[in-house]
Description:
Distance between the termini: 52 Å
Strand order of the largest sheet: 2-1-11-10-7-8
Helix content: 10-25%
Number of helices: 9
Shape: elongated
Structural class: alpha+beta
Largest sheet: 6 strands, antiparallel
Strand content: 25-35%
Oligomer: single chain
Amino acid sequence: xxxxxxxxxxxxxxxxxxxxxxxxxxxxxxxxxxxxxxxxxxxxxxxxxxxxxxxxxxxxxxxxxxxxxxxxxxxxxxxxxxxxxxxxxxxxxxxxxxxxxxxxxxxxxxxxxxxxxxxxxxxxxxxxxxxxxxxxxxxxxxxxxxxxxxxxxxxxxxxxxxxxxxxxxxxxxxxxxxxxxxxxxxxxxxxxxxxxxxxxxxxxxxxxxxxxxxxxxxxxxxxxxxxxxxxxxxxxxxxxxxxxxxxxxxxxxxxxxxxxxxxxxxxxxxxxxxxxxxxxxxxxxxxxxxxxxxxxxxxxxxxxxxxxxxxxxxxxxxxxxxxxxxxxxxxxxxxxxxxxxxxxxxxxxxxxxxxxxxxxxxxxxxxxxxxxxxxxxxxxxxxxxxxxxx
Length: 390
């Protein structure tokens, strides 16, 4: 794979990247590429090949290095078309990888569970030396995948819990965008665009966006905000045809006022969503049992249970979990409980004395704001899925 950096500012000849070695950029004469720019550090940043990716790394510079306008804190893999900026310099990373087979891409989008298409796709990618092919093969054989270089600018949001992902063949199958404790809400529009434009975001099948909390929308303006969000999605170029489920959140109220369906404009872009509800004004939430560890008995739930008011899960006798809604339950009670409750029409899970033993989508915290399809693991003994009751 041939790669180079196009000079956008200041203008000049392209910088051809060698197949081995490291290029160092800065104002020192010891650098590989020297810039006459007093705002740069002597050795400002470097671009290097790791055998699969070209990566850019800031070398502790005073002014920092940015990729697509975002400052980088760690070594960052580059993908064709991305922009590198430092000081007054702006470079565009380019490769000569040939265009992908659009017929095959569309076939996978239409039938993402058809393994034969994935195998052909992996073969095509490997034949042209594309590391994405190796990622598909490694995923099929159970190999450990490195998500960081492929997520790029999304990596920090992924680590922080603002972006949660389920994977299929190393590609994003399901993505959830939500707020994270102690962090300012991210711009969900930027995350969606970056995700869908990434190579591993071509076949997203389900997308959940916690719109009311991310946009801090009051109840009176919610309907308009939901319509604006759909309009934004409908205008995105290259929206994956594979999307079959979209959720923009929910609100629990009694009596419930019905649900909002997908707009006609968005349904034209994503036919699988036609007439599907994308925002629920629900009567409540339900916990559905997904699995229990052998020997563990559940009390108070059989298959599923509707949660209303404050409900707790506690450990009773050994290998037994109780799900109950007793009156006036104390916050800290015997049996290491965790609690479900509601605030502003949203279901919450408070880990209580189970902190570290309760996970939501495999993440640990003291309090979770729950979304549809969240998977809740209690002490490794039982797993539940949160569902909306309409």
